[in-house]
Design brief:
The protein is of the alpha/beta class. It has one domain: Rossmann fold, CATH 3.40.50. It has a six-stranded parallel sheet, sandwiched between helices. The structure holds adenosine-5'-triphosphate (ATP) and magnesium ion.
């Protein structure tokens, strides 16, 4: 019997959303669940997770999409097109029935920036294989996404070293 897959959202302005999603992916993979992670905001550096996951390529499929930090981008149309290409990839992976867990890391930004309609995400969640777990991360998850989820955790910032001028640290932030 197939059990119903869950929709999980990690949101909020505190640190820990992506790293919690990676921990979840690791836990699932350890039990033989087939995992695909799609990261929507490609940063300036190669992240530690991308490097480490090369060693787990058999267990966890990773796709890094997007064209850098959206708010720094000069060519908005290029950002939009790259993000939409990432979204099409996400749709294919969700509908492929090849996975038990699909992580859509920083997907909320596509909705926040008006690149992708919230309704499109909700439609895909409804169409997914019933068994599939989907985990979405990103700040400011919209009300409709929250309503569609089974589990929502908010990371709330209490302290962050950035606030006192400490720059992003290799191995901690990226
Ligand atoms: P992480 O990837 O460390 O789990 P995150 O996914 O929760 O963090 P994002 O909102 O995706 O955080 O932001 C990405 C980057 O911004 C990370 O380098 C993260 O450490 C940093 N960051 C997260 N929260 C804050 C904050 N409150 N102030 C400044 N930088 C932050
Ligand atoms: Mg993140």
């Amino acid at each position: 019997m197939t059990e119903k897959g869950l929709v999980l959202i990690y949101t909020g302005d505190g640190k820990g959303k992506t790293t919690a999603a990676l921990g979840q992916a690791l836990r699932a993979a350890g039990h033989g669940l087939r995992v695909c992670i799609i990261q929507f905001i490609k940063g300036a550096w190669e992240t530690g997770e991308a490097k480490a996951l090369q060693a787990f390529a058999e267990l966890i499929e990773l796709h890094v999409t997007g064209s850098g930090f959206t708010w720094q981008a000069k060519d908005k149309e290029e950002v939009r097109q790259t993000a939409l290409a990432g979204w099409r990839l996400a749709r294919d992976k969700v509908l492929s029935d090849d996975f038990d867990l699909v992580v859509l890391d920083e997907l909320t930004y596509l909705v926040t920036y008006g690149i992708l309609a919230e309704a499109e995400v909700i439609k895909l969640l409804a169409m997914r294989p019933p068994r599939l777990h989907v985990l979405i991360t990103g700040r400011a998850a919209s009300a409709g996404l929250i309503a569609a989820a089974d589990l929502v955790t908010e990371m709330r910032e209490i302290k962050h070293p950035y606030k006192i001028g400490i720059q992003a640290r290799k191995g901690i932030e990226w």
